Amino acid sequence: MEIRQIRDGDTLTLEIEGRIDAVTAHDVGKVIENGLDGVTKLIFDLKDLDYTSSAGLREFLTAQQIMEEQGSMVIRHVNETVMDIFEETGFSSILDIEE
Asked: What percent of the chain has pLDDT over 70?
């Protein structure tokens, strides 16, 4: 898995490529813990994300909770496989997902 961070003022875009699983979710968590100071808009660009496990879902939820306090969060470019996971787990109704 690879995470590219693009900061533009108070907006942070995280482009995630590969798979988020029990091992790699920790890397996403580190970015969320350490990289959101001063961020009022968080964008997850998942165009290159192939899969997310429950560990990855937990990290998205953590980011959502943080951003509810300091701004907003959106998830973009979700492929069909990952969208199926969001829908099956009910996360599609919790997260702000743009087509």
From this structure: 100
Second CATH level (architecture) for the domain 2-93: 2-Layer Sandwich (3.30)
Check residue 39 and report its DSSP letter. Answer: -
Cβ atoms of residues 38 and 31 within 8 Å:
no
Whether 51 contacts 82, CB under 8 Å: yes
Per domain, the residue ranges of the chain are: 2-93
* 12 and 41 Cβ atoms separated by less than 8 Å: yes
In this prediction, residue 99 has a pLDDT band, given cuts at 50, 70 and 90, of: confident
Q: Which two tokens stand for residue 2?
A: 């690879």
Nearest to 63 by CA among 90, 95, 87, 18: 95
Question: What token pair was written down for 38?
Answer: 């001063």
Token pair, residue 98, equals 């743009």
